[in-house]
Design goal:
The chain has 216 residues and is α+β, with helices and mostly antiparallel strands. It folds into two domains: 92 residues, Ribosomal Protein L25, Chain P, CATH 2.40.240; 87 residues, RNA Polymerase Alpha Subunit, Chain A, domain 2. The protein is built from four helices and 13 strands. The chain is elongated, with a radius of gyration of 26 Å.
Length: 216
């Protein structure tokens, strides 16, 4: 996974006055959790642009002016309700041999046959929760939607691998192609549907004589 470096300064004062002064100076107060003790620091608001305003997931290297650096992931971010400026960020320190949980973005490749026939691609999850050691975390989860026909579903179990674990139920549908009013069912899909209906009809027909015999 790609990493972004944020240069900051450790802060000693954490009261309301000191925090307000930092924000007025264009600095964002931050906290790092997960280590031996919590660490308070600040960094320029512009330093967070590549971390916050992007669809991709990143780890962070926090480099302080005292020469210390920490590997972390962003845990929480707060925005001003009116100006939408960043007013506080929480980080969680990560260690190479310790598993962490992150939300990883989902990206699709290919062209779905069902979508080309007028179906609608639905993606309930734009991000998936993944657990792994930092070096095994992917930049994104890739799904090839080419085989998806109208009515097809792509389950999270089809994404299983040895590098990381998904923290979702096995029946989670990551994406699916649903029929729309303008959808056109091709011959192959129609044949599959008719075959399924024929099987059901045969099953219903085989039950009928037994019912008539019971009446006699």
């Amino acid at each position: 996974m790609k990493s972004i470096t944020i240069n900051g300064s450790q802060r000693e004062s954490v009261g309301k006055k000191a925090t307000k002064a930092l924000r007025n100076a264009g600095q964002v107060p931050c906290v790092i959790y997960g280590g031996d003790k919590s660490l308070h620091f600040s960094a320029p608001e512009l330093a967070f642009s590549k971390l916050v305003y992007t669809p991709n997931a990143h780890t962070v290297v926090i480099a302080l002016d005292n020469g210390e650096s920490y590997n972390a992931v962003m845990q929480d971010i707060q925005f001003h309700p009116v100006t939408d400026r960043i007013i506080h960020v929480d980080f969680y320190q990560i260690f190479e041999n310790k598993e962490i949980t992150m939300e990883i973005p989902v990206k699709t490749i290919g062209s779905s046959k069902g979508v080309m026939n007028g179906g609608n691609l639905r993606m309930p999850y734009r991000k998936l929760r993944v657990k792994a050691i930092p070096s095994k975390l992917p930049d994104f989860i890739e799904i090839d939607i080419t085989p998806l026909k109208i009515g097809s579903k792509f389950y999270i179990t089809e994404l299983e691998n040895e590098d990381y674990k998904f923290l979702h139920p096995e029946n989670t549908v990551v994406c699916q192609v649903r029929r729309s009013r303008l959808a056109v069912v091709d011959e192959e899909e129609e044949g599959e549907e008719e075959g399924a209906e024929g099987t059901e009809g045969a099953a219903e027909g085989s039950e009928a004589p037994a019912a008539d015999a019971a009446q006699e």
